[in-house]
Specification:
heterotrimer, A mainly alpha (about 240), B mainly alpha (about 80), C mainly alpha (about 120), A: about 240 residues, mainly alpha, 8 helices, about 65% helix, B: about 80 residues, flat
């Protein structure tokens, strides 16, 4: 009975999706081919592409959209990630902290040495990705995910080496606080929240585009330590 | 190039069907990681390198690890779910 | 060939969404349902990026080779999908934590036997 109703629902959804599919043009060129948007309608993508470089100074337009044009949505996303990490830690909390690696055998010498050798290199790659977020593809979220996968390697390869929960929690909280503080400085200096108040510099330079590299470094730290904390809680917790 | 993208989309659909049909949850999670990997390559062909990097690292890497930790603490097979 | 080049990406993401929806509606195991939610997320992200594509366009990144701004693809769907991927993984982590708790409390992950989750 449930299977029949589900298949009926799926048929209705598939018919609706097929109707949308036949009307949406793929790869439309916009105003100059006749398909897509008419020239008198505002096309935000084209506006951000044409004026993004001189308004922000960042070579990566997606970065300037995420941090500057839609910076408030990024603040909301960082909040959602924080709520999920806190909720997960609260749900999985046990009063008697059981050691998850009590039955795990210590890893062999090759595995241990390999993981210890690779861990700083992975951290360096993640830091490179989020520092150069405004010049090359990448940014805070990607670099933070790479840093968290370095933490995962340490949890899996060297099970008796745990990272201290206090340091990870401190890094996460301080970087989130610093993000809001930078936004509030923009409010006091220029009159609008998340204003780009630092000088724009030369294009393609490392210290260009105002507060965009600063915010991406803070987001990289926050996402990396947050996802590392989630992995830590799920694998049994330490101390 | 369009033939290669068609091949990627077909592999993605087959992997999604496999993730729906496997009874061993570990195999279903690996098929889900394959879907994320194919989606990441298709993102690159649709000229979105930031999104491809994010999907590869977060979708194919971290979410698979989170699934395996959760399967470790609960059941492994879809049929028998009894606590021991 | 023109059918392929016009529609293959839409067919891919719509079938992903439909397969994910089937898994959520029919399968009784809780972790299978969460895998289905993950498939729906991936399909929707792929659809958003496919809508923003412009034929023979380039990535929206300037470089020293002086790319023109009018040949770039739309950057706004890419920013939205970046947010959506991160939120998808945080929803996944919280859902799996709740599934672990449900297993510890009821002893089973079968939705037909857990009271309050039947339909």
């Amino acid at each position: 009975m449930r299977r029949l109703i589900s298949l009926l629902l799926l048929l209705i959804v598939a018919l609706g999706l097929a109707l949308c599919l036949s009307g949406a043009p793929f790869g439309a060129r916009g105003a100059d081919e006749g398909a897509g948007l008419a020239p008198d309608k505002v096309n935000f993508g084209r506006r951000y592409n044409e004026r993004g470089l001189e308004e922000n100074g960042a070579a990566n337009i997606v970065t300037s959209v995420v941090v500057n044009y839609r910076g408030f949505d990024t603040l909301g996303e960082v909040t959602v990630l924080f709520i999920a990490a806190v909720g997960l830690a609260a749900v999985l909390y046990t009063r008697t902290g059981k050691a998850a690696s009590a039955g795990a055998e210590p890893s062999s010498l090759v595995l241990f040495t390999g993981c210890r050798f690779l861990f700083p290199l992975i951290l360096l790659l993640g830091a490179y990705i989020f520092i150069h977020g405004h010049l090359t593809p990448g940014g805070g979220f990607q670099g933070g995910a790479v840093v968290a996968s370095g933490f995962l390697l340490i949890y899996l390869g060297c099970p008796d080496r745990k990272l201290s929960k206090a340091a990870v929690g401190a890094v996460e909280s301080l970087s989130g606080l610093a993000f809001v503080a930078v936004a509030l400085v923009g409010l006091t200096v220029g009159g609008s929240f998340l204003l780009n108040f630092l000088p724009k510099g030369t294009v393609y330079g490392l210290l260009s585009a105002g507060i965009i590299p600063l915010i991406y470094v803070l987001i990289g730290f926050k996402v990396g330590s947050e996802l590392g904390g989630i992995i830590d809680n799920l694998s049994g917790g330490s101390e | 190039m369009i033939v290669f993208q068609t091949f990627l989309v077909l592999v993605m659909i087959v992997a999604a069907l496999a993730a729906a049909r496997f009874g061993d949850l570990l195999n279903a999670v690996i098929a889900c990681a394959l879907v994320s990997l194919m989606a990441s390559i298709i993102f690159f062909f649709l000229q979105a390198p930031d999104v491809a990097m994010a999907e590869a690292s977060i979708g194919a890497g971290l979410s698979t690890a989170i699934f395996i930790f959760a399967i470790n603490k609960t059941v492994r097979y879809e049929g028998n779910e009894k606590a021991d | 060939m023109s059918f392929l080049s016009s529609y293959i990406h839409y067919v891919g993401c719509f079938s992903l969404i439909l397969i994910g929806l089937y898994v959520v509606l029919v399968k009784p195991n809780l972790i299978k349902v969460i895998i289905g939610i993950n498939l729906i997320d991936t399909g929707v992200n792929l659809f958003l990026i496919a809508v923003g594509y412009i034929r023979a366009g380039t990535a929206p990144i300037f470089s020293e080779a002086a790319l023109q701004a009018d040949k770039m693809v739309d950057p706004v769907p890419q920013a939205l999908v970046l947010t959506a991927i991160v939120i998808g993984v945080s929803v996944l982590a919280l859902a799996l934590a709740l599934a672990i708790r449900v297993y510890g409390h009821y002893g089973t992950l079968d939705l037909r036997r857990i009271k309050g989750l039947r339909w």
